[in-house]
Design a protein that fits this description.
By secondary structure, this protein is α/β, with parallel strands linked by helices. The protein is built from seven helices and 13 strands.
């Protein structure tokens, strides 16, 4: 009962599985139990209410103690609060890469700049957001993420009611970027992340993330490579930071849902598929695996 928990929060499903204790990484892993899956009601998909209801339903069976007839110690110790790592689909938050000279600014000043950006760009009240940010190497670009306070508070309240403490919570994109690094060997490139509801692009220059843009996807878009290639072209035009950078000279690296490379190769210099986990599972399970 004291083992950590890994939680993947999708737009239509939540998956809860066993986490990986730090000490166990030094040993041969034990067979993993089947994760608990809870689908959101159709009318609650892509809503905060759907997330919180599904999270409560998923945590209860995932944390159910052994049956009463199981062998128990002579003195029953109190059940300790379990820790959990949680990764959310990027649908639930916002990202940005800001450019400027951030080398001498204090964290509070950086936070004010980030909040002002999300307010101006999305019309969101800064008081309703929780932001995280990281200045890139050289101090000329800043990567930021934002999540609604209401969603975060709800997740912590539901988890606490099930005796779970959230030790780490993140959107998916930072997790993917940390795993793949720049994704390109020097020069300029466009990283494209394809999910069911969202297409995200990160522009790379000299190994740094210098620009970000995204595009909501409609049903059927994620499976249409030609449509995605056109959208990728638009994202490139909005993300390119150099006036002389041409799409035909820029490589594109794809990550996420499997799609044909041909249409992208016709729009960019070359198209590559980044190494990634198997895609034969649900989006929420992949998020859970990132949380592990």
């Amino acid at each position: 009962m004291n083992n950590p928990v890994a939680i993947g929060v999708g737009t239509r499903e939540i998956v809860v599985g066993a986490g990986t204790p730090w000490l166990s990484r030094l040993r041969k892993p034990a067979p993993a139990s089947e994760p608990v899956r809870v689908a959101m009601a159709q009318e609650q998909c892509c809503t905060e209410t759907g997330v919180l209801d599904a999270l409560r339903a998923a945590l209860s069976p995932a944390l159910t103690p052994p049956p009463a007839d199981a062998v128990a110690p002579a003195v029953q110790a109190p059940v300790q609060k379990r820790s959990a790592c949680l990764v959310l689909d990027d649908f639930w938050g916002n990202h940005a890469i800001l450019r400027g000279d951030f080398r001498t600014l204090r964290p509070r000043e950086l936070e004010e700049i980030v909040l002002a950006h999300f307010t101006d760009t999305y019309g969101i009240d800064g008081e309703s957001l929780r932001v995280r940010f990281r200045v890139q190497r050289g101090g000329r670009a800043l990567f930021a993420s934002a999540l609604p306070h209401a969603l975060l508070d709800g997740i912590h309240e539901v988890s606490a009611s099930e005796n779970v403490g959230i030790s780490r919570l993140s959107l998916c994109l930072p997790q993917m970027l940390n795993r793949i690094g720049s994704g390109a060997d020097g020069g300029e490139a466009l990283l494209l992340f394809v999910a069911d509801e969202l297409l995200q692009a990160v522009m790379i220059e000299q190994g740094n993330w210098v620009a970000y843009d995204s595009q909501r996807l409609f049903p059927g878009d994620a499976g249409d490579a030609s449509r995605l290639a056109v959208l990728a072209e638009q994202l490139f035009e909005r993300s390119a930071t150099k006036a002389n950078l041409r799409r035909e000279d820029c490589n594109i690296y794809l990550f996420g849902i499997e799609t044909e490379l041909g249409p992208f190769a016709r729009h960019f210099a070359e198209a590559f598929r980044l190494e990634q986990p198997a895609m034969d599972c649900s989006p929420a399970q992949r998020l859970m695996e990132y949380a592990q």
